[in-house]
Amino acid sequence: MSYDVFDHVELRCPQLGGEVTFGYCRTVDDGLPCPRALLCFELKFPVEQYFETVLKRETFIRIFTNPPRTRLERFMDTVTEAAQRLQEKK
User: Running along the chain, 90 residues long, what does each successive block of 10 average in pLDDT?
Assistant: First the structure.
């Protein structure tokens, strides 16, 4: 199987808010896929089977077994970090 066989498939990225290709999502994290790729592309093609074929098992597990953080969780982390920095300056 060619690694880029599905690279042309497009959809709206819930994280970026615009259209992206699977090729982008497949390599977005220093050549590794976005953790959301399974969920995002599951209705477009057999994406889980694709990644099970092209990734090492350990890599597949590391990327896709931990659920991606929600936008709210990332926002709350940012607020917490900012509050800590303010406390350190006092």
Answer: 86 92 94 93 95 95 83 89 89
**Domain count within the chain:** 1
Q: Which residue range is the domain that position 56 belongs to?
A: 10-89
Judge whether 81 lies within some domain: yes
- In angstroms, the CA 64 to CA 50 distance is 13
First-to-last C-alpha distance (Å) of the chain? 58
Per the CB < 8 A criterion, the answer to whether 32 and 19 are in contact is no
CA distance 33 to 69: 15
Kindly state whether residue 45 falls inside one of the protein's structural domains.
Answer: yes
Q: Please name the helix (run of DSSP H) or strand (run of DSSP E) that holds residue 29, with its range, or none.
A: none
